[in-house]
Amino acid sequence: MNNVEQEYTQPIGLDVGTSRIVVARAAKDKKYEYHTQLNAFLALPHSKLAEDLLRQQEVFHEVQGTELVVVGNDAEKFAEVFHVEMRRPMKNGVLNPQEPHSLAVVRSIITRLVGKASAPGQKVFFSVPAPGESLDSAITYHSASIQQILVELGYQATPIEEGLAVVYGELAGSNYSGIGVSCGSGLCNVALAVLSVPVISFSAPKAGDFIDANSADVTGDRANRLRVLKEQAFALNGFSTDRVQNALTVYYQEMITNLITTLRNQISSSQKLPKLEQSVPLVLSGGSAMPKGFLEKFNKTLSANEFPLRLSEVRVSSDPLHSTARGALMAALC
Ligand SMILES: Nc1ncnc2c1ncn2[C@@H]1O[C@H](COP(=O)(O)OP(=O)(O)OP(=O)(O)O)[C@@H](O)[C@H]1O
Ligand SMILES: [Mg+2]
After folding, report:
1. Using one digit for the tens of pLDDT, what is the confidence trace for 115-140?
2. Fold classification of 172-316 (topology level)
3. Would the CB of 76 count as within 6 Å of ligand 1?
4. Which ligand has the shortest distance to the CA of 226?
5. Which bound ligand lies closest to the C-alpha atom of 166?
6. What is the CA radius of gyration of the chain?
7. Most buried among 6, 15, 76, 209, by the most CB within 10 A?
8. Domain boundaries, the chain
9. Tens digits of per-residue pLDDT, 152-181?
C-alpha cells in the first residue's frame, strides 16, 4: 500500500455532537486534521430556480419532497439571509424525535464529512452520550442509527462514550487515568477511567442549550441571539449592570453546580470504584468550557465541598472543540 492509499484507509474519529459534527484524521508529523459542520439545517420551499441557484453557488443542500433543505455550515449563513430560524436534528445529545428531518440531515452531514469508506471495513469510532436522566433508550436508538449510516458507507463503526473519548484525547500523559468531561450544547458528558478502562460514566442534562434557552426566557431575547453573544463576548467574571451577562452567569453557574453535584454523587455511590493510589487529573473540554473564567468558577464550586477523589490537577483542554473527535480517533487507532 502506498502512502496516499494508507492515508485514506486509516481509521477515523467522529464526534456526533448536538451542535457540531467533527471528523478527525491523522495527518503528517503526528498532527491531526479536523473538518466540522454545524449540525443544523433550514428548509425553504422548493423551486427549480432556487435549486439551480443553490447548486451554482455550491451551497450544501438536498431536495426533500417539496422542500429545499440547506444543511450544515451553510444553514447559518442562509438563516441570516432569509430571516428563517435554523433547525437542529439533535436535541440533548441524541436524534431529536420531534424533528422529521433529523435522520436525513445527520446522514447527509456525516456523508459529506467522512465520504464512503475507501476500503471495506475501514475503522471509525463515533461519539455517543453516556446514560443520564431519562435518556437511556433514546441513546440505543441514536447509536444504532448513526452506526447504520456509517455501515452503509462501508465502515466498521464502533460507538465510544463521549467522556471516554475525552480521556483518550487528553489524558495520555496520565496513562489514560483520570476524569474526562465534555461540556457541550446538549449535555455534559463525563467518564472516570483507570488505565483507559471506564469505571464511571454519565451525562448531565444542563449544558450550552440550557444556558441559552433559560437566559433567553428571562431577558426576552431569542435563544440563538444569546448563543451568539455568549460565544463572542461572554466571560464568567461575576455580575455587572448588563442583564444578558447576568442571566448567562446565573445559568452557567447552575450548569457547573449540577455537573459537580452529579459527579460527586456518582463517585460516592459507586460500588466499583478502584482503590487509586495516585491522584488523577480532571480535564474539561467542549465548547461550553471555553469562556474566560470557566476554570476558576469550576474550581471554586468544586472546592466548596469535599470531593471523594484526590485530583492532581483540573485543567481546560487546549483545543476544546476537537477533543472528542481526536479521542475517538485515538481509540480507533488502538
Ligand atoms: N467561545 C465560546 N464560549 C462559550 N460557549 C461556547 C463557545 N463556543 C461554543 N460554545 C458553546 O458550546 C456548545 C457547543 O459545544 P460542542 O461543540 O462541544 O457541543 P456538541 O459536541 O455539539 O454537543 P453535545 O456534546 O452536547 O452533543 C454550544 O452551546 C455553544 O454555544
Ligand atoms: Mg460534544
Report:
1. 999 999 999 999 999 999 867 789 99
2. Nucleotidyltransferase; domain 5 (3.30.420)
3. no
4. 1
5. 2
6. 20
7. 15
8. 40-87, 172-316
9. 999 999 999 999 999 999 999 999 999 999
